[in-house]
Queue: 4 jobs
Job 1
Amino acid sequence: MKISKVACFALFSLLTLQGYTQDLTAKLVDSKTGQGIPYATIRFDTNSGIITNEEGLFSLRWSAIPENQDSLYISCMGYEKLAISIQRISDSIIKISPKAIDLDEVFLFDREMEVEDIIEQVIERLPYNYNKQPVKQRMFFRQSSLNNLNKFEIDFKKSTIAELNEKFLDSVTGLIPRSSAYYTESLCDFYRTPEEHKLYIEKAAELYDKNNEGSMDALSEKMERIFRENVKPNSYLKIKSGIFGTKMELDSVFDAEDEEAKESEPVVEKEEKHYFLSNRKSAIHNIYASLFFNDESKLNFLEKPNRYNFSLKGYTSIDDAGVYIISFAPKRSEDFQGTIYVNIDDYAVVRLEYENVKSLRRIRLLGLSYEEQLYRGTTLFARGSNGKYELRFLEKIIGNQMGVRRPLKVIEKNKYVKGRRKQNELSMELDISNYNREKYELVVFQNNLISNEEFQGTVENESIKATYLSRYDPEFWKGYDIMEPNEAIRSFSASTEKNP
């Protein structure tokens, strides 16, 4: 039986459309080295697009592309701009060629400027270049919290409670996880004015190992049981570390725990949900507050330019606009080095790369230590419909080292017992060292200016609750615009073994 050409064409068209109904995950790579290209922009039009992650991965949702759009436009600083037909996107690898950047490339200027003059113009234009109107931003926000307990040693000295012995303390050190990871992902609308901000979360996920929580809960219950069985009525605990001490009434502690256990489940759940929204909103607000042009920023290279050396490295183009490439480094004792990319026409910083050159803060006092060791990031800005710039993408990594090396005594006392009133005592030496690393990734898909009335009429969904995932599930975000996770998140899986 022969099949007509019309039927063949219809069948081919149907198969093609079925292929386009599926989302595509692809990787953008350097055509010469094969390495993934991070933070490249893939645009459908002038107002919409996505960004590759640190490995060059991105997800493409066909339904988000306008019907009359036949091409995607890929751009990244240092690479040739690529227009690729949507019909040609069938491979999971897309290659882009490096662009030979000539530092002496000709740009048209009214007058040639020294780097000091450029920085002066950047500072002068700061109040005008960045948006201060009410705005609604569609964004995807990911926070990765990685914790490593480098040292946890307890040197047992003395205990008058039989169960609180050296063997028990050794078992405590075995229960505490040496490393843990906690990831949150949120697709949300962030409403912002210079004075206020609101958040509406459409969908969210939490990725972590609940077994770590279980071990700590079991330890807490065991400690409570031991104290209940061994301390006498009307006793209190005096906790001493060196010359410092504090008093804790046991009855009030136990009563509070009992009262908390009696609370109904719906009330607890409501508090947890409200906490998730407020926590995410606070984290996003802090990111905006720490941008280089705000008062709360640690990045002071423009606030105190006389303390930095600036060097004009050359010129390039970002989003078809010419930019200066300017590096900065501390003259003496300042904290940061990096590179800024300054628009030639309006002197806006459109890209910023920075890292600390020394610890930002170091505290050592009476056996306690804290050190801010890492503060590094990349920030991209895009011009909006009102000619002002808004945040387009941010990656920020913060690393802190904390330590405790002190003696610790827990003494039970009772005011109704004669003498020195000492009933029980636990004495030990603590040596603890912990490193915490926080990574923030924020992608803004859309910036829409709104009125003050629309902002005031926005209602937050305080009842939102993140979906718990014990392992990465690529289906969870299917059909949504996100930033692809890195390998650490894709390979994460909670342990299946039960803790003792």
Job 2
Amino acid sequence: MNNELKKTLKPVQLWGIIVGMVISGMYCGWNYALASTSPVGFIIAILIVTVFYTTFMFGYAELSTAIPHAGGPSEYASRSLGKFGGFIAGFSCLVEFLFATPAIALSIGAYIHFLIPSVPAVIAALIAYGIFVIINCLGIEAAAKVELIVTIVAIGGLLLFIGAGAPHVEMKNIFAGEILKGGFSGIFSAIPFAIWFYLAVEGGAMSAEECENPKKDIPKGFILGIATLVILAVGTFFISAGVSDASVLSSSDSPLPTALEGVYGVGLLSKVMSFIGLFGLVASLHGIIIGYSRQAFAMSRSGYLPKFLSRINSKGAPVYSIVVMSLIGMIFVLTGQTSVIIVISCFGAVALYIISMISLFILRNKEPNLNRPFKVVYPVVPAISLAIALLFLVALTVSNLSTVAWVVGAYAISIIYYYLYAKMQNSTAEPSIEEVDSEAV
């Protein structure tokens, strides 16, 4: 059975996938934080989250260049923590991505409904989801080209928004009312939505096997990607909060057009912003489909998931993983609960971040001679990243107790599944990269 991915990606395409996976977070989702904290409180949350992602991506670049594998975090954890650790990391990645995608699809539906009120948001979300599932089945080369185009358009839209809003920024909007609404609890509640600015940036690691020269291309794509996202996140929030009332932003499904309407009124500019906003949402929808399909593909190839999920078509696309995982995502679109879905996705992401940084520390001690084309400043940078990730876990748990039970239940079911099925299948799975390397030695 052919289950080898094609190596076609260049650094600019990897950058496009990384930024594209995340850029929808600039267009929607983050604004729900303003229901629980003030703009100043959210700025604090954004700063903490930005420091985390900056340090995390440097550590992640070390892992992904040393072990360029489609499984990404599941492969790093498997190599450092054993098969069970690899499974939990892979499951966390699927939780992050499979819940992020419905939230993005629902936002696409909201933007389409804003432009064409006669089209129900949920129906529009499902149709958009289906279209990009089909595009992903055409192979990574075609998918990456589409991703790069829509990402560039989406970046252009954010620059248009920043340019149109900058002359109308009023600092009183940012400092109005209670400066630290909700106190520390409000800031904790805002953290998941600050994470939404960057959520899924690590997904580029799942394309590592498809890079022409992963050991050189991955650091370039990762570092340029996180730099781009930091600039866009800060600019988007500052302009939005500076031209709008926080209470108006917090209740909008399409915050950027809403912000411009407050300045220019309902008209061509807000419609254009909504139209371009669709490109940002589409870029993330499309990019995250790439990410979760490669994760499912790699977990299947390693024996964690059914073998048919690692089959690829003539275009080199893991078509079964794309379709099956996407059908699961579509089920959650039907709930319509965008803000709850974002929180669940963040739980998966934070679990993944913690496991990945622990894996980095273990691999530094366990395999000191592993070829590392890119090395992070060790141990300071990964230690900062791990400490903040643990803070995120506390913040998420304390501020979302009603959602925690669902997350714990999902992990409990996944562990039962692992021991009843996946562990029994490992004996017949194809060897992982570390097993192949050890045999060669």
Job 3
Amino acid sequence: MSPDMLIWAALCLPLIIAAGIAITGSVSNIRESVTLVGASVLFCVVIAIASVVAGGEQPSLYVGQAAPGLDFAFKVEPLGALFALVASGLWIVNSFYSIGYMRGNRERNQTRFYICFAIAIFGALGVAMAANLFTLFVFYEVLTLSTYPLVAHKGDAAAKRGARIYLLTLLGTSIGLFLMAIMWTWVLAGQNLDFVPGGLLADKNIQPAVASALLILFAFGIGKAALMPFHFWLPNAMVAPTPVSALLHAVAVVKAGVFTVMKVSIYIFGEDMLSTVPGREFVLYVACFTIIVASLIAMTKDNLKARLAYSTVAQLAYVTLGAMIATQAGWLGGSMQIAAHAAGKMTLFMCAGAIYVATGLTNISDMKGLGRKMPLVFIAFFIASLSIIGIPPMVGGWAKYELMQGAVDAGIPYVIPVLIVSSLLNIAYLLPIPILALMPPPGTPEPKPFKRPDGAPLPTVVAPMITAGLCIILFFLAGPMADFLAPAFEAPTSTSIVTGGQP
């Protein structure tokens, strides 16, 4: 299959899967088989695309033109291939997990859930493969709209309120700020929005004040990146079922946000221009502030999903930090954090869901000694916590190392203590959970009986074990991952540019 056909297949498959789920919705076993088989086929297609990219090519697909300078086109470079691999690969695990969770918790509207999930993956892959800001923005909004019903899934007052905050915040930032930044870029670049190696705006002689304002519009307009103060949609979205939380925090939504921040930094501004933009320092300060303050808030939360939500806010800011460091090591650290955080945080949320399905417990203070009954779940939680903290041999350690190296290269020494303090706070709010569950203090009462006689459904136990193993496996694949991503950060060797994905 030719590379352009592979892109067509990757984009069309999630929609075909969604249609198949709708047709077979009345027969749950067939519906879920369609989801799992379809997700597996999609992952194979994305692997084929990534193999082409690893060979030094950047497959592209030109669809058409909405208006002059507004091309609907796709082009897969290493960073986009990485995001596509993360989204499609973890969809398989999340779908398997969802079968156990949704059935075990007797959730309603399961067919709608799986349909919206498939459309959300369609949006995430469109973001990953977009050749320009226009195409990316379209799929960015598809992702927002398709996940709104997932956040509101339970249909009660709390779910509706959380979903409203989710939708209004993400649409408000994207239309009010992100779209304005895109339009401004279109004007500054001479009716062009393509992602260009070295930076679309790098040779446009833009005034520092203008470049700073544009960068700040992008940083806060990409609301899915959850920089403070536009982070509050994320904790409010915790009313959704746990598989949705995993989607929001690990697979698609927030990763689409920080991925977009990286793309803008690398392909719109470029290393040389971004390192001289005064507003970059302001965004760096905001990212550092978000890392520390969100971690401190996480420590105060007794609700497990709320603690993990604020942890996500802090961990996402690592990627923004890497983007703003504007060195190859910083960009590599931010990109590796996308994959590392996806595996680690997805594990933590799936563990939280397994605990809830089995016991009905949501508060950390009620989980002491629970590891006696759910050892595999809490061992997976422990491994993922070590990865989030950055302790070898977990993949999260490589991301932090590269971010620190990037900070040294860029002469930004204050980033290093921020990352060190962040790791200490990670230890404080994550490690006590599995340790007190697996090794409770003497005299700790026996945990309450399971609300389900058989405990957590098997898929909700196996899935986090798989992603916990991935945290270790990716540690040893850090070298190949860095080699795969390296071409995305290198300066272009030619000044010739092909626009719009057209030959």
Job 4
Amino acid sequence: MLKPHEALDRAENLVSQAIKAGADAADAVYVCDASTEVQVRLGALEDVARSEGEEIGLRVFVGQRSATISSSSLNPSILANLVSRAIDMAKEAPEDQYAGLAPQDRLLKGDVPDLDVDDGQDPDPALLRAAALECEDAARAVAGVTNSEGAGASAARSIFALATSHGFAGVKSSTGYGLSASVLAGEGDAKERDYDWRSARYLADLDSAAAIGRRAGERAVKRVNPGSVKSGSMPVVFDPRVGSSLVGHLLGAISGSSIARKTSFLLDANGTALFDSSLSVIDDPLRPRGLSSRGFDGEGLPTARRSIIENGVLTGWLMESASARQLGLQPTGHASRGVSGAPGVSTSNLHLEGGSGSVADLIRDIKYGVYVHELVGQGVNLVTGDYSRGAAGFLIVDGEIAGPVSEFTIAGNLKDMFAAMVAADDLEFIRSSNVPTLRIDGMMIASA
């Protein structure tokens, strides 16, 4: 792989070519990555894969017209043709009064913060194989596990470089490691599957292979012989594995593009209380070793810790420059960017905090409800907030987790769900988006 400064040189050179060829403004994104993945199943090596690639994307502006083009070839003659085609495309594009680079006076000044997201390692495939085998062995050793879909271990390194024609140049190098297992329990047509996985920026920060495998096995066994749940209105408790999706729906509804297009159920919610006053939703892109940490956003703006929900109140929208201009506001440092297309928005190291009391305390007064650990389908309407998804989990009876249940639907409206949300104190920072166990009363349950 290239060194970070070489990656940045490539992005800067492409921007320079675009300006010399007649573009009024331009930015370029260079991405390269290399990864090794090992898969095992039933104690035997199943696959070893190594992938390496690089791509560069160019966005050019001619007046208020723009075009984006990308290439996986870095051949100089191909890049020269890329520049001329991008400019020709931009000249034919419709005018957009909101198009343009980020405000120059808001660009990150000085050095990009070092967030400690690269441990400098490139593990031997033999080490990854040993970890995957240990993980699967631990899962298969759980009494009641009858088959395995396998285990995998991976190691990757990536470089992201961004350069703009109005003064920004930044690069980020990161490593990432993953370990997972998926097994089945039960016999015949009554088999149930479950899994566990962990990922980290540093190899040393990964949870142990044995712990990951054991959790996968125990989860699968607990799901065997599911029953049915009664239909009706009742409390629903969301496992952290699926609870983070609820915060994801919040982010989709407060993106600048959704607000500018008036396609959000939270269109008039800025500055209002959406959650209980004990809860806050925090975006922390500067978290050391965070899974999605970044010192600059996809337009070259600085990132910063921010309370998206502060003591229950929505503090504002997530905006890249185009939607900010449309709304008459300033971009918020949440732009995300690939090598093709215009910037969107994303958060980094998101978490919900403010829960109090254990999970046992959270469910103690539930006479009859469900604990959800799996969600299926995409039944979420961000225009109306209507929510309806298939689910599986466990019954809660008289304050205790009871037997497994499956093939039921949970439904409600996201505004009502946010307002009714209560959180436990079991928040862990193990994903790019983290929530504790969540409880929402009054949801509608329909059994299949």
